[in-house]
Design a protein that fits this description.
alpha+beta, Alpha-Beta Plaits
Length: 314
């Protein structure tokens, strides 16, 4: 995400899948079941070998001052800690704990009959961080792969966004390319939206977006729930007053279909619709924010909501 794209991360990041599963996403449910099955049969295999969060925490643990370590003078080599370690991080015969894969469950501390397994700052002679040549090469290769993935992700986002012409996004998403690159598809915003106008990624657009076509749906003028729960910043946490001035789409009224009852004028939160006597309603393009409220009350189907290329302040 720091590099500009979350495309690679969102396919393996666990929090995303759990959030997605809550909204009954098929991919999210399958991923969560897979993680649970791995946990049952392989203990912490996912955490220590696949999960990018675990990888990041492992790198931090590698250079952390506070570690789990074994005091060799007190160790009985009974193997109790090694046999019960859920992440397989302990080698009793070497009196070694791999803090990079250790999940700090502290089970080993409770099991050790001699309190030989300890958590804290290692004695001075043991606190040495030396990056071996093999580790340095691996780390350098990882950086190159990461940089390539970020670049590829951004290019994919540009290509995908370039093909999209009719996608409407929640206020704060700015444009399709940014949303595509930053959205984790965790679907937390979908769950939080009171009017249920947000829809999951689909074949048309690979990130969360707004769908005004199903039922009487519109974006609430005084609501910012989607931005509050977005963990990646795909939907920026802009203030409510700024959200109320952000154009996310554009309403257009077909004069041939307009029934001239003026209902749309009464519900427009920004007073963008006017109607002169014996004429059809008109939308002031300089005021309209595309919330879709007018469309929900129009009984003649005269109102159309069109997507825009980039969100702007009115």
């Amino acid at each position: 995400m720091i590099g500009g794209s979350a495309i690679i991360i969102r396919y393996i990041e666990p929090y995303t899948y759990f959030g997605s599963a809550v909204t009954l996403s098929v991919i999210g449910i399958i991923a969560v079941i897979t993680i649970i099955m791995l946990s049952i049969f392989k203990n912490r295999y996912f955490c220590t070998n696949i999960c990018p969060v675990g990888c990041l925490l492992g790198l931090l643990s590698k250079i952390s001052l506070f570690k789990i370590y074994i005091k060799e003078d007190d160790c009985l080599s009974c193997g109790m800690c090694e046999r019960n370690c859920p992440s397989g991080s302990i080698e009793v015969n070497k009196a070694k704990v791999d803090n990079e894969t250790c999940v700090k469950c502290f089970k080993c501390l409770n099991l050790c009959p001699k309190n030989a397994v300890t958590y804290g700052i290692k004695p001075k002679e043991e606190v040495k961080f030396s990056l071996k040549r093999r580790e340095l090469i691996t780390f350098s290769a990882a950086l190159v792969i990461c940089a390539g993935a970020i670049k590829a992700g951004i290019e994919i986002g540009k290509t995908a966004a370039g093909k999209i012409k009719n996608i409407i996004l929640p206020a704060g998403a700015i444009d399709a390319q940014r949303m595509f690159n930053k959205c984790l598809n965790c679907n937390l915003c979908i769950n939080a939206c009171p009017n249920k106008i947000l829809t999951k990624a689909d074949k048309d657009f690979g990130a969360v977006h707004i769908d005004y076509t199903k039922g009487e749906k519109y974006c609430k003028y005084d609501c910012r729930e989607c931005a509050k729960v977005c963990p990646s910043g795909a939907i920026k946490k802009i203030p409510l007053d700024e959200k109320q001035k952000t154009r996310i789409a554009m309403a257009v009224i077909n004069p041939d279909k307009c029934s001239k009852n003026g209902v749309c004028i009464n519900v427009c939160p920004v007073h963008a619709i006017t109607m002169e006597e014996n004429q059809s309603a008109k939308v002031d393009a300089s005021k309209c924010i595309g919330c879709g409220r007018c469309k929900t009350v129009c009984n003649s189907g005269a109102v159309e909501i069109f997507a825009i290329n980039e969100q702007q302040r009115v």
